[in-house]
Design goal:
The complex is a heterodimer. Chain A is mostly helical. Helices cover about 65% and strands about 5% of the residues of chain A. By secondary structure, chain B is α+β, with helices and mostly antiparallel strands. In chain B, strand 2 and strand 3 form a beta hairpin. The radius of gyration of chain B is 23 Å and the shape is elongated. Chain B starts with a helix and ends in a 5-residue tail after the last helix. Classes of the chains: A mainly alpha, B alpha+beta. The interface between A and B is large, with 86 and 78 residues. Chain A: It catalyses: 4 Fe(II)-[cytochrome c] + O2 + 8 H(+)(in) = 4 Fe(III)-[cytochrome c] + 2 H2O + 4 H(+)(out). Chain A: It is an enzyme of class 7 (translocase). Chain A: Pathway: Energy metabolism; oxidative phosphorylation. Chain A: It is found in: Cell membrane.
Chain lengths: ~850, ~220
Amino acid sequence: MSALSRHRALTAIWGSPRGWRGTVSSVNHSDIGRRFILAAFAFFAIGGVLAMLIRAQLATPGSAFVGPEIYNQLFTMHGSIMMFLFAIPMFEGLALYLLPKMLGSRDMAFPRLSAYGWWCYVFGGSILIAALALGVAPDSGWFMYTPLSSKAYTPGINADVWLLGITFVEISAVSAAIEITVSILRLRAPGMRLDRMPLLAWYLLVTALMMVVAFPPLILGSILLEVERAFGWPFFDPLRGGSPLLWQHLFWLFGHPEVYIIFLPAAGVVSTVLPVMARTRILGYGWIVAALLALAFLSFGLWVHHMFTTGIPHMALGFFSAASALVAVPTALQIFAWIGTLWKGRPELKLPMLYLLGFFVIFVLGGLTGVMLAMVPFDWQAHDTHFVVAHLHYVLVGGFVFPMLAGAYYWLPHFTGRARIPLLGEAAFWLILIGFNLTFFLMHLTGLLGMPRRIYTYPSDMGWTWLNLLSSVGSFIMAFGFAMFAVDVALQIFLSRRARRNPWGAHTLEWAMPLPAPAYNFASQPRVADGEPLAADPDLPLRLARGEGYLAEIRHGWRETMAVDVTTGAVDHVIILPGNTRLPIITALATGCFFLALLFGFYWLAPLPLVAVTVLGWRWAWTLGWREEIGPVPIGAGETALTHREAAGAPGWWGSVFLLVADGTLLGSLLFGYAFLWVVAPNWPPPELIAAGLPQGAVAALAALAGTVLTRLAASAGVAGNNAASSRWASLAVGAQAVVIAALLWLGLAELPAPTGHAYAASSWAMIAYGVLHAFIALLCAAFIRARIASGHIRKGRVLETSVAQLFGDYAGLATWLILACVLAPLVLA
Amino acid sequence: MLKWLRLTTTALAVGGCSGPLSTLDTAGSAAASIATLWWAMLAGAAILTVLVMTLLALAFRRRPTPAPGGTRLWIGGLGVAMPSTVLLVLLGFALALGEQTIARKAAGVVVVEASAHQWYWDFRHPGMAGEIVTRDVLHIPAGRPVDLRLEAHDVIHSFWVPRLAGKMDAIPGHVNVIRIDAKEPGRFEGQCAEFCGLGHAGHRFRVVAHDAAGWTAFQRGEQP
């Protein structure tokens, strides 16, 4: 087969149909990645316009441009858009587009999940923007502190838009996190050991793992607050045993790691682009990886530095202060590793390097003010002033936007296949750099002179007038710079000349393909023996195009890519990925209907889309797999491997593990909330505690144990080929989970006080609801196994589906036991 | 060193750092020590910035052979040892300073109850004949430590008189205590620092620090 006919055949398999059919059905990572990036930039523009309105209002004292009603919406939406609709999706887009290419793979592990995440992001984001256009946007700040955001003080729909819209968008963040993790761990080119991965893959792996555990606390907090607003369950109401501080803990438990989740991918771009600009290898690869792991660990131990003024004892603050300062060490390590790399090489002042220099200047200043704010006494003064506004923009614009702009110019030839038009990018750089510093450097002083955040106006005698005017002028200069960047990119896409194949002379695998990248990435997958494959073998692109690597053979129209051992990168099995389908967009629409029903208060309607999502989810799993015997298939180079349905540890199993880690973090946050309210909240103990319920609890516990054991029995019988036994055990498991659901509901209804009376009852009911939901999921898994045995999909040696069902069965059992222990604890201890 | 810093502080306060809400134009002991911490940190940050920028600039100079220095210098020395040392010193200093400013039991402390509302403050002072309640004006004796017991009745607010001390949140359902003092008699502006809804910008109050005679008069119930 010639290179050209292989290109045509692979494009037919991996490409998407033209026109709207392709738009709604494509699951290809390059398509989805590009869409994420473009949409994130559009949201960035909207957030930027809001920022300009804010600066227009603050330019002069006593301005009558907007009133507090509008201003509160402006700053709330500016923050929310930049965090949730720009920064996170932008990095997701970059990861989706680049990761498979850098890892020598043909797609991500769960292409349909990428598409589902994309649609959730677009639909959720649209809800927020529609609310903004209609003047009912969230207005309680992006941090949504209760009680200001609770029903009594924000009676309108505004807060619901935030809670539901952002949670909808977060589905895409969690699915991206799971997908990125599994793709990096399993979907690499054979031979790419963990320590041969490009550094960006390490950064993205650590980021994705952080997201798996950082987002659930916020999702839980949003659910609890929405339930409080909608049904009056008083989790955060101090009069009924709730605590506003619980919201702050849940929010910042997410909110601080979030900052590093935004910074790390951008730092990964620095670690990728900077050595290429300096014509050398990065200094201290292993040290940087160690620094990342330290950073990820530490970032979960310093959320309280957002709460230094909430009255937590000073010695406890000292611990979080030390952790906040300590996090500067792994950051400094990276800064000096980068500077050392520049010293080691011969840096050239090309445009990406210019943006990296901007990054250094701004980010170092932001880091230093961060250390200042980590000192408790100084924070007592600077907290909630414009000093913090300056600091966070130095960190986020310096630490995310500038590296991303460097990355944009570095990878644009890859996206477009075209070269840059000279000078426009340089002009944009200077406008952004000067405008940024004029806007935000002065804000340090404005803050020290006492200007608080989130005030819509100020009197003229405070000494802030000139500073604010100059900041506003700077912000408009910066906005011109970004507009110029957008023009530059548009010109490059539509007008510029073609680029060379590897314009920067880089050594990572994303440059080992024709530009713009084909839908299948690699005509055949490489065997990697070096951290910089193109340095060791400059002819690699040619040989891959000729089909001299893995999986060059085309069969059955399958989308095939290699799965490797997590650490050694040895060949493990062949993954057959699902092709284009409309299931993701339809499922996202059904999910969106659920959120809209809640948003407009049609609670009686909400179960309908939930049923639809359940049915679609079933179909999602059902359409995969096949009944025929496959066995080992040839993969090239005389080797053979099993396909993923017959190999242990397929991506579906790994994805389920990380989903359950996220789910477990959500449960952990709920149990933390329950304990926190017992210890800290006012108006405890509750007027009414659980008085009986041991019989129901015993039934639920025994049924949960039976459900777990029966699912395990069904799984092992299924893999052994004993269909009749497996089917019987699965039926019994369905029955056991039904008993769990009934017993939990019986326990709640018969013995627990009404959830609206006190936070104790509300949190007990929340735990019961969690247990019921997970028993139901385990029930569906067992029923699925039974149906797949009947249809002949599960047969001897097919481990994937049974192993996933077993995971969910185990988890449901464990969750039910934990929940029963917590719900019944007051009874047992009394 | 500290004396020198204090002198500089005063000089800078006169030239541009003053203002009704300025944290650098200090009039209370907590605010003064925090301002000292700030100037010390600013000096340190300036030195570090110059160091990093110089190293960065030097990387671009033309040179015949690649410059020396491996992971030992760049990562072990500059990346780990240097920031660890600086941070350790700074943390110790800040922790000690924070310990001094928190409200501990002491003789002669005046206790005032403050309750925050959308959008006003009520202060309950000890008087000769029971409590004296004022709205949006807090009365304290100059030169004596004052503890404010903060409560909020609707949403979260934050008590902040920048020239006297740092801020402390007033949270519904919780009571927080902050200690402030004014060295000299005078009037000082206060501002709610936690976003509290539509009236947040105008959620302000005033602190009147009395001399000994004035304070006695206030406690007797005479209007100042």
